[in-house]
Amino acid sequence: MSIDIAYLLPLLLAMLAAGAVGGVLAGLLGVGGGLVIVPVLHTALTLLEIAPEHSMHISVATSLATIIPTSISSVRAHHQRGAIDWALARRWGVWIMLGAILGGIAARYLGGTVLTLIFACVALSVAVVMAVRREGSYWREQLPSGPGGTLIPVGIGGISTLMGIGGGSLTVPTLSACRYPVRNAVATSAFFGLLISVPGTMTLIISGWGVPGLPPFNLGYVSGLGFMIIAPMTLLCAPLGAKIAHSIPPQWLRNCFTVFLLITAAKMFASALS
Q: Coil, strand or helix: which one is 218?
């Protein structure tokens, strides 16, 4: 594939910007940066005339790969502040990873438009829940046990992998609705981002292995070029987001989270339906 450098430069700059903003959001909101990276990569790959049936899969897989170093950096920053609930991490960990593997397998058989619509629908649903739920109101006093306590993390892992995100956009509202303090929810979701991104990335590498029509430097569905540019930026910027998260009122975190999800959902609906 021959690509003009003058044409490639805006793509490289967009990837750098996506990595920087995604890193800050990873630490600030516990979202792993995927809500920024996936739409940016999808748009860039479309402009580069990558096959439509591959562009969303590449965006999702590459986003998950970049979330690995981001999550490590974010987890370290939150752990230093004692904000991660390690008891919940042990309780949900295996089920989160199982969901991520199942989501990666399912992505292989879903079209790009379907993945885009899943991304938009989930982002919109979470934004609406965050917007209408009053501060201080809760769905229940604690997380459910039994089958419900298992299905929730499996669902978070599976849907997050299909969206190419670290799970914060699902984990934070879920924990907040069960009376978890928002800062602890953000910090713990950063750890879950690691449990989602590692098996999710590996599964999508295997699922995309040998698929014809993928761009050069791809490892399965993962873009090597995108990873090399975005990952360092997210790694550098995640601690800044964690620092901001611990210095502003929790309500501001909720409002920023909600507005960002609404904007992202609108953009992805427009992309899927155009």
A: strand
How many Cα atoms within 13 Å fall on the side-chain side of residue 173? 21
User: β-strand 222-223 against 218-219: which pairing, if any?
Assistant: antiparallel
Q: What is the pLDDT of residues 169-197, one digit of tens each?
A: 788 878 877 777 777 888 888 899 999 99
Closest listed residue to residue 159, CA positions, set 222, 107, 194:
107
Burial class of residue 245, CB neighbours in 10 A (0-12, 13-18, 19+) = buried
Query: Average pLDDT of 130-150?
Result: 68
DSSP 222: E
DSSP 3-state of 230: helix
Q: Where are the alpha helices (DSSP H) in 141-210?
A: 146-163, 168-177, 182-208
Give me 86's structure tokens: 């390690």
Residues 6+ apart with CB under 8 A from 88: 143, 175, 188
Tell me which residue has tokens 């580069």.
Answer: 48
pLDDT tens-digit readout, 97-121:
999 999 999 988 888 888 889 988 9
Q: Is residue 219 classed as helix, strand or coil in its secondary structure?
A: strand
Least confident of 32-41, 182-191, 229-238: 32-41
Separation between Cα atoms, residue 9 and residue 103, nearest integer Å? 33
Distance CA 69, CA 9 (A): 24
Instruction: Flag whether pLDDT at 78 surpasses 90.
Output: no
More confident residue, 106 or 215: 106
- How far apart CA 41 and CA 226 sit, in angstroms, is 8
